[in-house]
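Team,

Forwarding the record for the chain on the shared tracking sheet. I've put the sequence and predicted structure together so nobody has to dig through attachments.
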Amino acid sequence: MSDLGFTPAEIRFATATLAAIATLAPIAYYLYPSRAQESTEHVQTFNKFIESYSTLRSQALTTYATRDFSHTSLPEDLHLPTRSIQPFREHAETIFEIFSDFQVIPEDDGHGGRAVHFSKDTNTVVAHCRMGGRVNGNHETGTKLLESGITEWWTEGVLFVKLSKDGKRIESVREFMHSKKAEELQIRLDGILSE
């Protein structure tokens, strides 16, 4: 066996350098998460999904959906059903009729980036978003909302979007909604529709 000839000081220096790198690597990840995440296929597919809301076309929402796609609205005490593709499209059409424009916009993460986070372990994008838009005065329900003083409606929620391993398809969306705002809109719609 040959003698590599490292002095104790060189070994201590190499050990300290490796320890410093091991300590700084996770810190660098957390300092620059959004830049690294934005380039992943998963986050790009997520971005296309939330941008599709602005088309006001339910078909566009499921462009990247898998055949066994599901949408769940949370919290569970809202008692809203889990929807497969077709019921999800029908629900979206009902909502889209009320709006002349609708957006889903990621909130600021408090550090100048977007509150969008990707977990490689679960192939899930989690995002805190603001959602809503202007009420459509050309639709009967929208007109009644306008007459009741609602010209815009906005809420916030957290989306858990589970994607395929390659990040190109959406398997499920779990949407944790601001329950008071959802309930408020539902009460107003129920009042209008029962007139």
